[in-house]
Amino acid sequence: MGKQDRQFxxxxxxxxxxxxxxxxxxxxxxALPPDPPLEISADLNVLLSQANLALGRLDGSIQxxxxxxxxxxxxxxxxxxxxxxxxxxxxxxxxxxxxxxxxLTPDRPRDVDEVVNYVSAMNEGLARLAELPISVRLIRxxxxxxxxxVRGSHLTPGELRTSQNWIGPAGCTLDEAIFIPPPPHEVxxxxxxxxxxxxxxxxxxxxxxxxxxxxxxxxxxxFLDGNGRVGRLLITLLLCERSVLVKxxxxxxxxxxxxxxxxYDHLQSIRDEGTWERWLTFxxxxxxxxxxxxxxxAREILELRESHRRAITDNLGRAAGNGYRVLEHLYxxxxxxxxxxxxxxxxxxxxxxxxxxxxxxxGILQEFxxxxxxxxxxxxxxxxxxxxxxx
Length: 391
Ligand SMILES: Nc1ncnc2c1ncn2[C@@H]1O[C@H](COP(=O)(O)OP(=O)(O)OP(=O)(O)O)[C@@H](O)[C@H]1O
Fold this sequence. Notes:
Number of domains: 2
Strand order of the largest sheet: 3-5-4
Mean pLDDT: 93
Low-confidence stretches: none
Helix content: 55-70%
Largest sheet: 3 strands, antiparallel
Number of strands: 5
CATH class of the largest domain: Mainly Alpha
Oligomer: single chain
Distance between the termini: 48 Å
Strand content: under 5%
Bound molecules: adenosine-5'-triphosphate
CATH architecture of the largest domain: Orthogonal Bundle
Radius of gyration: 23 Å
Number of helices: 16
Structural class: mainly alpha
C-alpha cells in the first residue's frame, strides 16, 4: 500500500467527517475496536505490563490497610477536585473539605458545589455497580447527579443532547470549532455501540479497553456539558467494576491536568489520523505514574497513622482510647469541631474540649478558622499528603 493510501486509511480509522445538511462537517466515529486492528508494539506492551503491575501494587497496598474504606475518602475528593479543575473550576481540596464540614466563608468559591457533586456522582455510581453494569443508563444517572443544581444544570442533566455541540475556544461559533462531535440523532446509537464494546469478550487487555472507551466517549460527547468529567469518572468506575481496583483510589485526573494540552491533542489526533496507539501510550504512562504515586500516598498514610497512634499512647494516658477513636474518625472527616468530638466519644463538652486541646498539643489537630467561637480543627498532616499533587 502506498504512503497516501495508508494516510487515507488511517485518517478513517477512528471515523470520518460527514457533511451535514446545514453545511458543517461533524465527526462520525467508527465502532470500537479500531480497524485496522491495534498494533501493540513491544514498547507499548512493556508499558502496559508496567501499568498493570503498578495498579496491582496500588490495589494490594489499599487492601492491606486495616480499614480500606477509611482511607479512600481523600482519594475520591482529590480525583473530584482535579477532574473538575481541568477546565474552569477553581475550588481546591481545602474548599471541598470546608464545604463538607459546613463551614461557610464569604470567600468560598461558588463552584465548590460542582466538586461536591462529583464526589456524590462517583459514590453513587460505585454503589449502583452492585445492581447495574456500566451502561448508557448508568452514565445518564451519573450525569444527572453531576449537574444537579450547578454549572450547566440548565443543560438537561441526565439527558442525551438533542442539538449539535462543538469543542473550541470559549464562546467560539460552530464555524470556528476545533471539533464537531456526531450529530444529535446519532448519539444514542454510538453510545449503544460503546456499551456493546465494553461488554464484548474481545481479547484486548482491560487497560487498553478502558483507554479506548474514554477517548471514544469524549468523541461522542453525548451531553451538552460535563462530558470531560463523566468520561473521567467512567475510567474509575470501569477499574472498580472489573475488580482491577477494589476501591476508587486512582486520581488519574492529576496526570490529565498536568498534561492538559497533550491530553486534548491526543484525543484530536485519534480522530484526524487514527493514532490510537499513541493515545494508549500516553494513557498507560498516566496510569503507571499515578498508580505509583497513589501507592506512595497509601504508605505515607499508614506511617502517619502509626506515628500518631504512638504519640497518643505516649501522651494521652487514660484518654488514649478516646484519642484513637478521634484519630480514626479524622481519616474520613479531617475537619472536626469540639461538638463533633463530644458526639463521637459521648462525653461532656469540657472533656471533649480537653481532648481536642491535647490533640492540638501533640500536633495532630490544628485550629484553622482563627475564631474563638465555632472553632474548627483540621488534621493538617493528613490533608497535606494529598496537597502536593493538587496544583
Ligand atoms: N479537541 C479537544 N479539545 C479539548 N477537549 C477535548 C477535545 N476533545 C475532547 N475533549 C474532551 O472534552 C472535555 C470537555 O467537554 P465538556 O466541556 O462537555 O466537559 P466538562 O466536564 O464540562 O468540561 P471539562 O472537562 O473541561 O471540565 C475535555 O475535558 C476533554 O475530555
